[in-house]
Task: inverse folding
């Protein structure tokens, strides 16, 4: 168990790295092997709705219903 001070020191940077617009990595990019994340904000109002996925490493993007 960390002390209160250790907790603050060790975890202070995590708040900065959290980007609510993008999910945690969902799958491996088919182009470069990087991490592909789901955009949690942009939903295309097609039927059914589609979500935007984008690779961290390259410009790979795709839209999926899940
Ligand atoms: Zn990629």
Result:
């Amino acid at each position: 168990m960390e002390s209160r001070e250790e907790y603050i020191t060790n975890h202070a940077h995590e708040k900065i790295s959290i980007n609510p617009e993008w999910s945690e990595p969902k799958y491996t990019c088919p182009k470069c092997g990087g991490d592909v994340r789901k955009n949690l904000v942009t939903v295309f109002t097609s039927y059914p709705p589609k979500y935007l996925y984008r690779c961290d490493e390259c410009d790979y993007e795709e839209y999926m219903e899940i």
